[in-house]
Design goal:
Layout (H helix, E strand, L loop, with lengths): L1 H9 L7 E9 L11 E3 L2 H5 L7 E5 L7 H14 L14 E3 L5 E8 L3 H10 L4 H5 L18 E8 L4 E7 L6 H15 L8 E2 L22 E9 H12 L10 H21 L5 E8 L1 H4 L7 E2 L3 E8 L7 H15 L5 H16 L5 E7 L17 E4 L7 E7 L5 E9 H7 L3 H4 L6
Parallel strand pairs: 5-6, 8-11, 10-13, 13-15
Antiparallel strand pairs: 1-5, 2-4, 3-7, 3-14, 6-7, 9-16, 10-12, 15-16
């Protein structure tokens, strides 16, 4: 560990860890039929930004003989996930050319040991530049993404053995549920199994007036990112506290507890930093598959998620039970939606109300908790750790994941730098955070 730190100091902010040793294109094992050559994006897909959220899986038991298995199984997987092997014809496009041009597959040699890399991540929580070296072509680091590719892969070989599989998929191709299903489909084929095939839901409408707001870069605001871990034992304490707030216990879930607590502390930090309170909105992503799709909803691919909003009048006075109640009411209102088109129109209406409101603070939260990411076995065991790289967008947001041992929730938080300095010292927050 001392050697790693000394090299970091010698080379400045971050040292070069990786060397690209190969690059090739992996194409579907069978050609896409002519009638599937154009995939019209649904309105929810079109609303999604063309940013890649890279996820990196670490495998200590990998050996170099597994690379061909990984490539072959990816080729077979792309036959079913055929849009992923296609290309966007241009910016702000409403469809994908499913032309089988394939997926970029890179291999890199990493000049450190796998365990040391993971330990460095634990010690140096802001060293996203280290994770960037595991990601193909730095995808996911900028919202100004002009790449026509939907997906790229980088297989990283560590000194002394072990590997990290990094996958970056465009948000326009699908939401978290779609991405996780793709991973599991690929891994099942690699193990010799027979996965359930996905169903892509195209749009019957190819053009629409898009909302006049987009994710912006970080030129105007300086953001900081921090990782916080909430053990289940402390979340049980918080649950008891929230249940005692009302006449009837609401029995919040772990995700509801962490989401509402982070929202409250972020609002308080913003109020302290600015010296004034403002209205605050929490946008929480909700999977709509089990609400609007009757036949095999779990395998419906694409963006089939929408947002519910908890709006609070005073950013300095946010009550956890009130936030949870508003989120639940928002989800109940979604139950009347009949299809993806209505879900998109509902989301457009909600976002349009926010677009012109410059006085309201907005925070977004997505959760991958409960997703079988740590079950992803390509044939050489389950991952010992997972890292996610936030794209650099002008946005205050939270991503929740299970901890590797599934004994808590890991929260990746991005706030304006000055607000983060206050947020990370919030005593109510720290009462439920593991010391890392």
């Amino acid at each position: 560990m001392t050697m790693i730190m000394s090299k970091l100091q010698r080379f400045g902010r971050i040292r070069q860890l990786h060397t690209i040793i190969s690059q090739e294109i992996i194409r579907p094992s069978s050609p896409t039929p002519p009638h599937l050559r154009t995939h019209n994006l649904s309105l929810l897909d079109q609303f999604a930004a063309h940013i890649h959220l890279p996820i990196v899986f670490f495998y200590p038991n990998y050996n170099h003989d597994n690379a061909n298995i990984l490539k072959k199984s990816l080729s077979q997987c792309l036959t079913q996930y055929y849009p992923f092997a296609g290309r966007f014809p241009g910016p702000n496009t409403s469809h994908i050319n499913c032309n089988d041009e394939g997926v970029v597959f890179m291999e890199a040699s990493i000049n450190t040991r796998l365990n040391d890399f993971i330990l460095q991540k634990e010690k140096e929580k802001e060293k996203e530049e280290m994770v960037d070296q595991l990601i193909p072509n730095g995808l996911g680091c900028s919202v100004h993404n002009t790449s026509p590719n939907l997906i790229e892969v980088q297989l990283n070989h560590f000194t002394g053995g072990g590997a990290a599989v990094a996958v970056a998929i465009s948000h326009k191709a699908g939401d978290g549920f779609t991405i996780v299903n793709f991973f599991n489909h690929w891994a099942t084929i690699a193990r010799g199994g027979s996965p359930i095939n996905p169903t892509f839901i195209p749009s019957t409408i190819t053009t629409t007036k898009m909302p006049e707001f987009e994710l912006k870069g970080i030129e105007k605001l300086n953001y900081a990112r921090k990782r916080f871990v909430f053990p289940n034992s402390k979340l049980n304490e918080l649950k008891n506290k929230v249940n005692a707030m009302g006449k009837i216990p609401i029995n919040p879930t772990r995700v509801e507890l962490v989401t509402s607590l982070l929202f409250k502390c972020a609002g308080r930090a913003a109020t302290t930093n600015s010296g004034s309170s403002k209205p605050s909105n929490l946008l929480f992503a909700v999977n709509m598959r089990n609400k609007i799709i009757k036949n095999c909803p779990l395998m419906a691919a694409g963006n089939i998620s929408t947002m519910v909003i908890a709006n609070m009048a005073d950013s300095g006075e946010i009550n956890l039970n009130e936030v949870i109640d508003k989120l639940r009411n928002g989800i109940m209102e979604l139950l009347g939606l009949r299809d993806v088109q209505e879900a998109a129109e509902n989301q457009l209406g909600r976002f349009s109300m926010l677009a012109g409101d410059l006085e309201t603070r907005v925070y977004t939260c997505s959760s991958l908790c409960g997703f079988p990411l740590y079950e992803l076995d390509f044939g050489w065991g389950k991952p010992v750790d997972i890292m996610v790289r936030f794209p650099d967008v002008n946005d205050s947001c939270v991503l929740l994941m299970d901890t590797p041992s599934r004994d808590g929730i890991e929260a990746l938080v991005r706030l304006e730098k000055e607000e983060m300095a206050i947020f990370q010292k919030d005593q109510e927050l720290l009462a439920y955070v593991e010391d890392i």
